[in-house]
Amino acid sequence: MRYKAIRFIFIVCLVPMLMGFCILPQGIQGHVFIEKNASMPLKGMSKQKGLPFSTMVYVYEASNIDQLIVQEGNFAKGIKATIVKQVRSDKTGKFKLRLAPGKYTIVLGYQEGIYIPFFSGNNGIAFVEVSRHQFQEIDLKIIASSMD
């Protein structure tokens, strides 16, 4: 009887762990903010993050600007790329996505399209790198005055 109990524990607990099923998660987490009237901070004052913003956070395969649909500055109608995951940030702007290790593009839903929070180099769209067993912390900001 005791042998069967030990064997059961071994099979149920240890074998999956040894096979890699108990891998620590990794992905991207952070906050989304919106800044409506962006201006230079006054001397001696730090730049504000903006207000927390609830919106869709889209993660695509790593993409470049040639894949954008109707781009104007940081705004576009969409991306011709494969979407990997999406999540809505909560009312405090917080979001969290579990992803496989790799390089991704992250954009935000805004008005009738997407907002690109930053560009990566000359050609890349908001690259984020996910490493094994780590959550990449990133705060994303929509500068609404860039949409006018």
Verbal overview:
The structure is a single chain. The protein is mostly beta strands. It has one domain (about 25-145): Immunoglobulins (Immunoglobulin-like, Sandwich), CATH 2.60.40. It has 1 helix and 14 strands; from the N terminus they run H-E-E-E-E-E-E-E-E-E-E-E-E-E-E. About 10% of the residues lie in helices and about 45% in strands. It is globular and about 70 Å long. The strands form 4 sheets. Strands 3, 5, 7, 9, 10 and 13 form a 6-stranded antiparallel beta sheet that branches. Strands 1, 2, 8 and 14 form a 4-stranded mixed beta sheet that branches.
- What's the overall geometry? globular
Mean pLDDT across residues? 84
What is the number of helical segments per DSSP (H or I, 4+ residues)? 1
Helix content bin:
10-25%
Quick recap:
By secondary structure, the chain is mainly beta. The chain is built from 1 helix and 14 strands.
Protein topology:
Layout: H1 2-18, E1 27-35, E2 51-52, E3 56-61, E4 68-69, E5 75-76, E6 78-79, E7 83-88, E8 94-98, E9 102-110, E10 113-115, E11 119-120, E12 124-125, E13 127-130, E14 135-143
Parallel strand pairs: 1-14
Antiparallel strand pairs: 1-2, 1-8, 3-7, 3-9, 4-6, 5-10, 9-10, 9-13, 11-12
